[in-house]
């Protein structure tokens, strides 16, 4: 599926943060990705031969080949050998996003409760939107799904959830519903064996009732039924096993079917970091030790290190006392992967803002419920920073309050979705505003942020969510 024409793309997907380092191969990989996006993501087209591309990006063959491994890892392009070969544009799969999300959630120790709380929020947004957006094909599809649920053959429990998400016509929402659906499945890999239990019967009844409510055009009813259904599922899983997230080996950094040596090494090192519960800053190993341990050349190890750095699992420090060190888990790695995938799928700015509004309002609700002394101090600190920053720093500082509220909500899964959406909305628009316009809104934004923070701190949920909604709707209208 090519990127749709309305998909605007930032010139660089916000990569190259200081934490990422100025590694040549990563920079070239980012340039290749930008070029693919700007060409309209022509799957199957040859970007150029190796000789062409060495000339275009003006780098050494060694750096270029490392960059190619990175774009192959991100499924943006792959190398085709032989005559007429070169770097060929590929079609990214949702698996790359799932990998990045699962790895991040595992590293921050997200629980089953957080995953399901986030699913409820996202799928409530879906059921709220879908009745108003159904077309005739959707209607027929829902009738078929309802019949399939009634049939004695087990249906994939994700099918109804995925179909409804698609009918929201919001690419960002669809993506996160799919990802969290898959993450939730990691807790119940044996769903096929459950089909004879009472749970399966409940699932069928719940799915049919949700479909009925959507077909009846009753958003409120559909939403309530979706919440009940997901909460029942979470209850069931909670009774069955620990709430600690499972991490099947295959999920970390791809399933290894490609058989690429560097990916296998990266996977093995990531598993080691995760299994040891290693703290950021801890030494994973010196380069020579890791080469010996993994039985690979320096070149292969360095490729593996790029992949680990890309996912912010570990970072290589050169020089005396150097080596591979555990990195702090960061939502930025997930943002890049999501941004790349959504660029391929053809995302609209309105999709981002719609999801952002829904998720941030849910976060405000949770923040009001869960705020404590430390949380109130965090809100104040964010506002103080925003009031004091220079114009250069403001682009970042203006999101501090949103990040603080996401943090207070105490759900790392929802916070991740919000951070990704905040970052995407920033990448796609704020840079485009003229300096003068920016000055005019700065004052107003700060005042609005203060009002939102006051409502959250005083425990007035209705006022807090009202102010957040108005603020984000104004932002959405401003950038449209
Ligand atoms: Zn279900
Ligand atoms: Zn704001």
Bound molecule kinds, no repeats: zinc ion
**Amino- and carboxy-terminal Cα gap:** 25 Å
Shape: globular
The total beta strand count reads 6
Can you give the helix content as a percent range?
Answer: 55-70%
How many structural domains are formed by the residues?
4
What is the CA-atom radius of gyration, in angstroms?
A: 23 Å
Classification by helices and strands? mainly alpha
Give an account of the 3D structure.
The chain is mainly alpha-helical and 480 residues long. It folds into 4 domains: 1-92, Arc Repressor Mutant, subunit A (Orthogonal Bundle); 111-239, GntR ligand-binding domain-like (Four Helix Bundle (Hemerythrin (Met), subunit A)); 254-328, Winged helix-like DNA-binding domain superfamily/Winged helix DNA-binding domain (Arc Repressor Mutant, subunit A, Orthogonal Bundle), CATH 1.10.10.10; 348-479, Four Helix Bundle (Hemerythrin (Met), subunit A), CATH 1.20.120. 66% of the residues lie in helices and 5% in strands. The protein has 21 helices and 6 strands. Strands 1-3-2 form a 3-stranded antiparallel sheet. A 3-stranded antiparallel sheet has the order 4-6-5. Helix 5 (112-133) runs antiparallel to helix 8. The model is unreliable at 1-22 and 255-259 (pLDDT under 50). Bound molecules: zinc ion (2 copies).
